[in-house]
Amino acid sequence: MPSSVVYKMHYDQETATLRVIFVSGMVYDYKNVPEEVYQAMKTSGSKGTYLNKHIKGHYAYEKVS
Question: What sequence ranges are listed for the domain KTSC (predicted)?
Answer without folding.
Answer: 3-59
